[in-house]
Design brief:
The structure holds two protein chains of two kinds. Chain A is an alpha+beta fold. Helix content of chain A is about 40%, strand content about 30%. In chain A, a hairpin with a 6-residue loop joins strand 3 and strand 4. In chain A, helix 1 packs across helix 2. The longest helix of chain A has 20 residues. By secondary structure, chain B is an alpha+beta fold. Chain B contains three helices and six strands. In chain B, the strands form two sheets. Chain B has a three-stranded antiparallel sheet with strand order 2-3-6. In chain B, a hairpin with a 3-residue loop joins strand 2 and strand 3. In chain B, helix 1 crosses helix 2. The longest helix of chain B has 20 residues. Chain B is elongated. Classes of the chains: A alpha+beta, B alpha+beta. Chains A and B meet through helix 1, helix 2, strand 1, strand 2 and strand 5 of A and strand 1, helix 1, helix 2, strand 2 and strand 6 of B. Strand 1 of chain A pairs parallel with strand 1 of chain B.
């Protein structure tokens, strides 16, 4: 499923909303999560999962093709952990 | 201290920005999560451009160990969901460091 397919499903379920508003709602949904992560906040969606930001220390990496050493700078990366409800839905 | 954003905060953002009622906003947040979950349950990949993609992977049975007792226990085959953030989201999160 893509974002536009998700929008189409929601539009079908909410015939009284403008299609353009559904688009804005879906964008607002994901932007709210992205903005929170950009601030370093955690996003907890009970039953689905939780998004957080993890810090990765600088390390000496290797170019897997040439075997050459490269320095990898420290960075923050988005992290997602599946929730209990989702785990149950996927394994019933 | 950073705080946690929850469903209600997303519903509030939709209420503020789009002008749905508070009830409608909360309901559509639940529907969005449910539709994504349903798609994943079917084993589909969910791709949200500029955000990232969710996918479901099947894990085979393997032998695990109780870290406390050292006892071997079988880990049953299961399905797990993973999230791969888009480059846009990666950059957004990294800029704030």
């Amino acid at each position: 499923m893509t974002k536009s397919e998700l929008i189409a499903i929601l539009a079908e379920k909410n015939p009284d909303f403008y299609h353009r508003d559904i688009e804005r709602i879906v964008n607002c949904f994901f932007d709210t999560i992205s903005d929170a992560l950009a601030r370093g906040d955690r996003v907890e969606l009970r039953g689905f999962g939780a998004f957080s930001v993890r810090h990765r220390e600088a390390r000496r990496g290797r170019n897997p093709r040439t075997g050459e050493s490269v320095d990898v700078e420290s960075k923050n990366v988005p992290f997602f952990k599946m929730g209990k409800g989702m785990r149950e839905r996927l394994n019933k | 201290m950073s705080r946690s954003i929850i469903r209600a905060d997303i519903a509030e953002a939709i209420y503020q920005n789009i002008g749905l009622s508070r009830n409608e906003s909360a309901e559509i947040v639940a529907t969005i999560l449910d539709e994504i979950s349903k798609s994943l349950e079917k084993g589909e990949k969910v791709k949200i451009s500029s955000f990232g993609s969710f996918s479901v992977n099947a894990k085979n049975e393997r032998v695990g160990r109780n870290p406390k007792t050292g006892q071997e226990v079988p880990i049953t085959p299961r399905r797990v969901m993973t999230f791969r953030p888009s480059h846009i989201l990666r950059d957004l999160v990294n800029k704030s460091s």
